Amino acid sequence: MIIACNWKMNMTTETALDLVADMATQVAVTGVQRIIFPPFPLLAAIHMRVAGTDILMGGQDCHTEQKGAFTGDVSASMLSDVGCKWVIIGHSERRQLHHETNDLIAAKVAAAQSAGLSVMLCVGETEQDRRAGASDAVVLDMLASSLPADIDPTRLAIAYEPVWAIGTGQNASEAEISAMHNRIGGFLAASNMKHVPVLYGGSVKPDNAAAIMAMASVDGVLVGGASLDAHSIKAITDQSAPN
Ligand code: PGA
User: Which of 51, 61, 90, 126 is deepest in the core (most CB within 10 A)?
Assistant: First the structure.
């Protein structure tokens, strides 16, 4: 069971260190892995605080190249250098606001793994896709096209995040999560990747986390808004158990 905290473009050094200090005092259940994804400028300071705890750290994105003339970008090897073990790639906010394509995302996944990072690849349909009855086709196409041919499945997790559920307070129902997770599981099994964990993300909160994490097809949660608050993330972690 993975509890992943996507802080997005939030926090200051002070609020972040407070939150991490708080999280570090909570002993996670055995078999539950906590991963935090702070914004880039906070990574080095946070690494000092989480080193020696059970909490792992990751970046929220990376470039396809490891270095070079790419003003404003951050490479996977830079993330690794400051103590990251993970990186989120293909989040819907990158796909939509930065127009990231599946091809670009596949190149980022390859770059991240070649720098030694594990990848949390996000996939999910929009409200429009859902209304058109295209959710399955969209998500399966994202999966097939966002994974490079030489993917290492031991350093990969998939986060199913329906775009309409992100930051809206409206999480997908258990039936919707289970149906999509089973489809994703089918794709992974057919691609010799059946041990890859599949997480759910989109308005996970203390009051719905237990039911979501108890589902057999759910190997973890990717939490945005609720991961910024010490009480909420503690409550979510308290309800987790390996499945
Ligand atoms: P949310 O964000 O929990 O605020 O809906 C989840 C995400 O975007 O990863």
Answer: 90
In a domain, 166, yes or no: yes
Note every long-range contact of 127-131, with CB atoms under 8 Å and residues 24 or more positions apart, other chains counting.
127/163, 127/164, 130/162, 130/164
Number of domains in the chain: 1
Q: Tokens representing 143?
A: 């999966």
- Catalytic residue, chosen from 91, 100, 125, 181, is 91
User: pTM for this structure?
Assistant: 0.97
Confirm whether 176 is domain-assigned: yes
Coil, strand, or helix at residue 28?
Answer: coil
What does the pLDDT look like over 111-160, one tens digit per residue?
999 999 999 999 999 999 999 999 999 999 999 999 999 999 999 999 99
Q: Which residue has the tokens 């970008």?
A: 73
Assign residue 227 the CATH number of its domain: 3.20.20.70
Q: Where are the alpha helices (DSSP H) in 123-191?
A: 127-131, 135-146, 174-190
* Cα(137)–Cα(125) distance, integer angstroms: 9
Domain assignment of residue 81, given as a range: 2-238
**Assigned token pair, 209:** 């986390």
Structure tokens at 31: 């078999």
243 inside domain: no
92 CA closest ligand 1 atom index: 8
Q: To the nearest whole percent, how much of the chain has pLDDT over 70?
A: 99
